[in-house]
Amino acid sequence: MDSTDVINPATGTVLGTVPSNGLAETDAAIERAQRAFESWRQVAPGDRARLLRRFAAVVGDHIEELAGLEVRNSGHTIGNARWEAGNVRDVLDFYAGAPERLSGRQIPVAGGLDVTFHEPLGVVGIIVPWNFPMPIAGWGFAPALAAGNTVVLKPAELTPLTAIRLGELALEAGLPEGVFTVIPGKGSVVGQRFVTHPAVRKVCFTGSTPVGKSIMAGCADQVKRVTLELGGKSANIVFADADLERAAAAAPAGVFDNAGQDCCARSRLLVQDTVYERFLSLLEPAVKAFRVQDPSLDTAEMGPLISAAHREKVASYTGGAEVAFAGEAPKGDGWWFPPTVLLAHSADDAHWREEVFGPVVSVLPFHDEADAVRLANDTEYGLSGSIWTRDLGRALRVSRGVETGNLSVNSHSSVRYWTPFGGMKQSGLGRELGPDALLSFTDVKNVFIAT
Ligand code: TAP
């Protein structure tokens, strides 16, 4: 079997090798998952809930180990990596409440009894990107397993280590063999097989919009269910009446967190023209103070980019652009890039329109509320966004006007495991997290019993 080197992006050194599975191994994993489905779907709701709670507890016992692995493999800061491992535990705990609450309905009919059931789909294939290897895996497998499905999961080739460890911890917690299988390998081989294998009934994909489109097209052939979480180019809209000090202090983390490799990154900064100069003067020290460091240090706010190739892509956006100011990044080994603020001259600038997926934010002034909404919506993306204002009416009007799945007012938060998360327009299809995700791993069956 082929293998892939796994690199530490903070140093460029090889951490180890991981098998790169082929078609035969993928088919075998899917067929094992299909066999396991027959018994997993029959596990009593209380027992399935107990197993998921035990899985959550085992993950909870390994937070430091998982976080350390993510720091080395993905370059995430240790603070973020601890949150990410804790998020997997919390998502498992949340969905452990589901097997005993997945109720259908009783619908009044003449001549009998009519009831509905939320049936599991079968084998679910989950394809995970490199930017958030643990949470994105958990957002798929926790609700899928809770609803009675079995799961095959392909981590990104660049960042497979924590997913492999989560697969081991599932077995340690007592999940039966075949219920949750992690199978590393190439997207074009393992991921593509999830799309074409008839036993896989649903594909959850997070990653780039072009690959997401090809997966959706491939799934159409067998009418497979899909959930897609794709790219973003989210707007951070600062109105003149906002608490400008607070908005400027929060803006760097809203885009530079995870080195900007975040589909929710607020990478388009829209500032009302009357406070534009003042806001930039408040933003500059906040950007320059953003700590880009060895990600294993507790003080680090940002680590390196994921790979040399990705750093080149990010740099291609800043080359010809006007840099307002930038922070500092370590020199030498590793794929470092400084937090960078670019001035957009028009909404046609490539760095304003395209997903850079790095620590780069583009700034553009706007005139009034209508102008802000128009500029925010001038994109095919629609994942996240923020609005800074003290006017509640404006906050609600703009929230309803901006075409995006997740908005925060006077904050940059996008993700809570109990509220829905997902994109409008070409940022995705379907919702993860909260009750919405659970139902997307089921089909409704209606049964009529004549009396
Ligand atoms: P993708 O190429 O879309 O990869 C995401 C996942 O899909 C990886 O596991 C990848 O496998 C797999 N994959 C690739 N081609 C596939 C195919 N034909 N069939 C099935 N699975 C396939 O994204 P990337 O290279 O990781 O990142 C490129 C860009 O995607 C980024 O710059 C960013 O714009 C966007 N992105 C968005 C997000 C979110 S959260 N929305 C996350 C990551 C990336 P491999 O292991 O072979 O790569």
Automatic annotation (TrEMBL):
Keyword set, alphabetical order: Oxidoreductase
Catalytic residues in the record: 229
Record-stated family: Belongs to the aldehyde dehydrogenase family.
Top-level taxon of origin: Bacteria
Name listed for the protein in its UniProt record: Betaine aldehyde dehydrogenase
Organism name: Actinoplanes friuliensis DSM 7358
GO molecular function: oxidoreductase activity, acting on the aldehyde or oxo group of donors, NAD or NADP as acceptor
Sequence ranges assigned to domain Aldehyde dehydrogenase in this UniProt record: 4-447
Pfam families with a match to the protein in the record: Aldedh (PF00171)
InterPro entries: Ald_DH/histidinol_DH, Ald_DH_C, Ald_DH_CS_CYS, Ald_DH_CS_GLU, Ald_DH_N, Aldehyde_DH_dom
